[in-house]
Amino acid sequence: MTNRLVAIDTPGGPGFVDELRRIWNAGDAAFPVDQRLPPAAKTALLAAMRVGESVEPGDALVVATSGSTGDPKGVVLTHDAVASSAEATSRRLGVTADDHWLACLPLSHVGGLSVITRAIHTGTRLTVLPGFDERAVNSSNATLVSLVSATLPRVETERFRLIVLGGSSPPTDRPTNSVTTYGMTETGSGVVYDGVPLDGVEVMIDDGAQIRVRGPMLLRCYRDATVPFDADGWLPTGDLGRWLDDGRLHVEGRKGDLIITGGENVWPEAVEAALVDHPDIAEVMVRGIPDPEWGQLVVAVIVPGESVPTLESVRSHVKQRHPVFMAPRRIEIVASLPRTGIGKLRRG
Questions:
Q1: What is the pTM of this model?
Q2: What is the CA radius of gyration of the chain?
Q3: Which of 19, 142, 234, 236 could form a disulfide with 102, with the two C-beta atoms 3.0–4.6 Å apart?
Q4: Are 54 and 81 contacting, i.e. CB atoms less than 8 angstroms apart?
Q5: What is the share, in percent, of the chain residues with pLDDT greater than 70?
Q6: For 225-252, what is each residue's pLDDT tens digit?
Q7: pLDDT at 69
Q8: pLDDT tens digits for range 260-286
Q9: Residue of 158, 253, 242 whose CA lies nearest to 206
Q10: More confident residue, 313 or 346
Q11: Confidence (pLDDT) at 22
């Protein structure tokens, strides 16, 4: 009998887990559908992922990712990869029989889905919510939870033994019981925890400062059968990074996010970090825009606090910590910042 790709088009909850188990027991692979998509977008995505068509024996999941182009790509993860991720992450987090996972992130993203697959593989107790619900999260008796930075202010963080924090750059004042992760859909979840690769994961920085990874939890291929690995089995991530003096990995950011203004390199995350304590800024995103004179201009997109900040005050605040070329030359005032479903800023 031919193995095929089966969609799970249902909200998070016990029914989602039951459906995933049923699909796997039949030898098929599962594709979780984003519940926030309108009908036409769902139909287009199902067609792009070739739902109902064949998969290779051993394939467990196809997870959609927009990557750097914005076009949906299906990441194919095998059962062996899912098991390797579950075992390596559980060892690093010290998961025991007394632990209890809470899944409250979108299950169409690997950061939310991996909580479920990890719990299934290790037999850890699991609660799955339809989405992030402040009241439900804060009344949960779970010991482990995966969150993104945008949800932290709404969570009673001390009630959890550990918080796995992904999705975007962590806040400087993150909880002491949190662990930051680095990974992507192609790596099946986080593969670097607090700057240290998981057991079995290799990380290198190539000559262009790009992060490359290798390990047993990585994808088999994309749904269109393309394989993103180089000849030596390394996956180029599209992220730039460096090794710190203590041997930990520091991720600078997406290669395409780097702003080059007047020949100087500016990382948006560094400017954002300098502005988080500006008294008139509630949230901020930094990006570059084309400029005929400078190549690119540094722009701060700001959700204001009680007062609207001025460009002068924003530039002055950044110049207290960084060279003048890193100070934004423009500001844009908005009601909210554009984010992906797991909290990553959309800079494009």
A1: 0.82
A2: 21
A3: 142
A4: no
A5: 96
A6: 999 999 999 999 999 999 999 999 999 8
A7: 43
A8: 898 788 889 889 999 999 999 999 999
A9: 242
A10: 313
A11: 98
The CATH number of 5-252 is 3.40.50.12780
Structure tokens at 237: 């991530």
| C-alpha–C-alpha distance, residues 190 and 179, integer Å | 11
Q: Are both 5-252 and 258-333 of the same fold?
A: no
> Looking at residues 37-58, what average pLDDT do you find?
93
For residue range 285-306, list pLDDT tens digits in order.
Answer: 999 999 888 889 999 999 999 9
H/E stretch holding 110 reads helix 110-122
CATH number for 258-333 (one of 3.40.50.1950, 3.10.350.10, 3.30.300.30, 2.40.128.110): it is 3.30.300.30
Measured CA to CA, the distance from residue 335 to residue 302 in angstroms comes to: 8
Give the separation between CA 220 and CA 188, rounded to whole angstroms.
10
* Sequence letter at residue 77: L
What whole-number distance in Å separates Cα of residue 85 and Cα of residue 218? 9
The residue extents of the domains of the chain are 5-252, 258-333
Cα–Cα distance between 219 and 228 in angstroms, integer? 9
Sign of CA dihedral 31, 148, 165, 15: negative
Report which of 240, 221, 257, 281 is spatially closest to residue 344, judged by C-alpha positions. Answer: 257
Q: How confident is the model at residue 1 (pLDDT cuts 50, 70, 90)?
A: confident
SS3 content of the chain, % helix, strand, coil (to 5): 25, 35, 40
Q: Which residue has the tokens 């188990």?
A: 21
E strand or H helix at 165: strand 162-166
User: pLDDT tier at 68 (50, 70, 90 boundaries)?
Assistant: very low
The DSSP letter of residue 309 is: P
55: exposed, middle or buried (C-beta count within 10 Å: 0-12, 13-18, 19+)? buried
